């Protein structure tokens, strides 16, 4: 069943359900402008513990606006890491094998187009990159990745946290949840919230501070406060929720290895999937905020250099000054500083 509505921006928006390969109920938000799109479909993939709407912060012009205005047929995926679906102990492997390929198949079926472009962020990027490297999304010909892809690199303090704190915390709670900043229940939730309040003094938004604690060791981790308008800083209180410790455990393994590591033994994902030649002819564009404290820009540089060994001069890397992690999309000036670059790369001829 597809629900359709009109947004204040004049867009038509419908929710298109799809079923992941393992039977999970997921969905896509299909957004169209007043005019018929003149270009093909582009799918946006969010990170961990947020939702498809993270690309539509209360700024004057979102990346969705920019894409629609440029003629694209826009699709936002809610994969199993979304806070709009039932929480689960997910891994990157599950999303790579079960979620993203079915989402792309749904877009191809709904649009009748046999090629799709993708904009992928953070753990939406890592999981989608596994899909692409394994040849599971052959319809996707252009992939624009933000923050991290095949080679996660984090600050030293975040590595120590992943190696030593995650095993302890995973025995106390199955999830970390920035919503504890609004309402914490139980000893572990209350104790971790008190810890964050005692150590994070960068703002008075406890959800923002808990998000920084959840995703790394920055003050803040996910953005530069200077890049967020007050409305976005308030809005994000309700845009971050549960992230399972199964994900953080897998990321710790990836950090040890220096590249993404499948952990569930799916035959579709060989153990060396992140290091073997890609089973895709897609062109990759890698974005990194120069001041990203969640994943360092070196993350994207390593993947760019790795893939460029196979196709020199084909892919692209852009390190964006004065930006961090999610403010690449949510920043109040991202429409001026970032979106023209995104459009230019998406519009380059094959």
TrEMBL record:
The keyword Flavoprotein applies. The lineage of its organism: Bacteria, Pseudomonadati, Myxococcota, Myxococcia, Myxococcales. Coiled coil: none annotated. Gene3D superfamilies: alpha/beta hydrolase. This is Cholesterol oxidase. GO terms for molecular function: oxidoreductase activity. Its cofactor is FAD. InterPro entries: AB_hydrolase_fold (IPR029058), Cholesterol_Oxidase (IPR052542). Belongs to the GMC oxidoreductase family. It comes from Hyalangium minutum. Keywords: FAD, Flavoprotein, Oxidoreductase.
């Amino acid at each position: 069943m597809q629900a359709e509505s009109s947004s204040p921006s004049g867009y038509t928006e419908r929710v298109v359900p799809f079923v992941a390969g393992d039977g999970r109920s997921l969905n896509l938000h299909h957004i169209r402008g007043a005019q018929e799109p003149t270009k093909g479909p582009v799918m946006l993939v969010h990170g961990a513990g947020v939702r498809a709407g993270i690309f539509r912060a209360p700024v004057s012009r979102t990346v969705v606006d920019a894409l629609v205005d440029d003629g694209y047929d826009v699709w936002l995926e809610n994969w199993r890491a979304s806070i709009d679906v039932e929480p689960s102990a997910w891994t990157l492997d599950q999303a790579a094998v079960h979620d993203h390929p079915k989402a792309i198949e749904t877009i191809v079926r709904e649009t009748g187009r046999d090629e799709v472009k993708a904009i992928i962020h953070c753990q939406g990027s890592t999981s989608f990159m596994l899909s692409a490297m394994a040849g599971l999304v052959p319809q996707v010909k252009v992939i624009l990745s933000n923050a991290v892809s095949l080679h996660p690199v984090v600050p030293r303090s975040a590595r120590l946290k992943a190696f030593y704190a995650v095993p302890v915390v995973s025995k106390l709670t199955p999830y970390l949840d920035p919503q504890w900043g609004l309402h914490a229940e139980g000893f572990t939730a209350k104790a971790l919230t008190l810890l964050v309040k005692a150590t994070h003094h960068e703002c008075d938004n406890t959800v923002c501070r808990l998000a920084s604690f959840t995703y790394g060791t920055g003050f803040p981790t996910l953005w530069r406060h200077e890049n967020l308008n007050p409305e976005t800083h308030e809005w994000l209180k309700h845009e971050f929720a549960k992230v399972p410790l199964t994900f953080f455990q897998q990321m710790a393994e990836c950090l040890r290895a220096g590249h993404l590591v499948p952990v569930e033994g799916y035959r579709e994902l060989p153990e060396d999937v992140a290091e073997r030649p890609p089973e895709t002819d897609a062109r990759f564009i890698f974005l990194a905020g120069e001041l990203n404290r969640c994943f360092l820009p070196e993350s994207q540089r390593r993947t760019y250099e790795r893939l460029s060994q196979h196709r020199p001069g084909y892919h692209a890397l852009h390190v964006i000054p004065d930006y961090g992690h999610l403010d690449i999309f949510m920043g109040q000036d991202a429409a001026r500083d970032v979106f023209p670059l995104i459009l230019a790369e998406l519009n380059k001829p094959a």
